[in-house]
Structure formats: C-alpha cells, structure tokens
Task: inverse folding
C-alpha cells in the first residue's frame, strides 16, 4: 500500500522540479528580438497618498500631451494606421480633457491647459524626423506615456474622493485600451 502512494508522490515531485527548472524556456519574453519591452504596470510603488490636486494636474498634463502628440502625428505620419490611431487619440483625449476640466472646476482646482515647454520642445524636435522614423518614435512615446498614465489612474481609483475615483475608473478602461493598441502597433512598426 505504501508503494502505491509513493509513485504519485514521486511523479508530482518530478513535475514540480521540471516546472521550476524550465523557467528560461517560458514565453515571458516573446519580444526578445524587439526593442519594445512589454510592461506590466506596478501600482504597488505608487504613492496612493498624493492628493486630488496631484492627480488632476498630472492627468491634465498627460491628456494635453496626448492631444498635441496626436495632432502632430495626424499631420506628419506616413502610416495610415498611425494616422488613424493619432486621430483616435486626439478625439478621445480631448473629450477626456473636457471631463477632467469639469471635475477640476467642481473641486475648485486649477489644472494646466497646455503642455510644459520641455515637452513642446521635444515635439518640435521629433517633427523634424523623417516618416517611418517619426512613426516609430511617436508610437514609442505613446507606449511609455501610457505606462505612466496607467499608474496614475490606477492609483486614483483608490482615492478618498468619490468623484475622482469614478472619473479614474471610467477613464482607466480607455487608457488600458490605448496602451494595448499602441503596444501592438509599435511592435508592428519595428
């Protein structure tokens, strides 16, 4: 009887050992040949104690930047998929910025309506890039910016302010979708 129980235990131990040993063969890095790194956002490091003003100001800066980058990409891009994505970014982030402004007004907090001069200078520089190079740089920027935006909005979903929580939760779905599409498109351009 002891022998009958020993065989399944040995097989289970062997399976566990092999599973632990073969971690390098897993598909965790399917983009090894690409310069794009799939990034899972880690909101554990986000300071959830920042305030409502911090969230509103940073969301406004990020939203304004997405609109300005999108406008530039609509006019500069040579790739129809990038142009279409940029138009979507302008449309959806403009609508979100309007809703963000309403929330800020309700909270009596002044938020930026333009992008910082350093970001504007960067946009002026990338506008000089040739077609395909511009497209790659633009999509790379969108991916990186959306990682930060995901962290910001995920942390705001735990805000003590119900209006901020609702706005962040509603907008988070859109940001997640933008991130996924941008990552896929960026990968296709490489």
Result:
């Amino acid at each position: 009887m002891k022998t009958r129980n020993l065989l399944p235990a040995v097989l289970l131990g062997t399976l566990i050992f092999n599973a632990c040993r073969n971690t390098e063969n897993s598909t965790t890095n399917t983009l090894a040949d690409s310069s794009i790194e799939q990034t899972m956002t880690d909101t554990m490091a986000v300071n959830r104690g920042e305030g409502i003003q911090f969230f509103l100001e940073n969301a406004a800066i990020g939203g304004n930047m997405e609109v300005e980058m999108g406008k530039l990409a609509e006019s500069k891009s040579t790739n129809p998929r990038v142009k279409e994505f940029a138009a979507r970014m302008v449309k959806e982030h403009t609508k979100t910025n309007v809703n963000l402004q309403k929330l800020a007004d309700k909270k009596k907090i002044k938020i930026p309506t333009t992008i910082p001069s350093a970001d504007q200078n960067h946009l002026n520089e990338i506008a000089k890039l040739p077609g395909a190079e511009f497209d790659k740089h633009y999509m790379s920027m969108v991916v990186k910016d959306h990682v930060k935006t995901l962290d910001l909005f995920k942390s705001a979903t735990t805000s003590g302010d119900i209006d901020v929580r609702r706005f962040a939760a509603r907008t988070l779905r859109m940001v997640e979708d933008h991130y996924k599409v941008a990552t896929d498109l960026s990968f296709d351009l490489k």
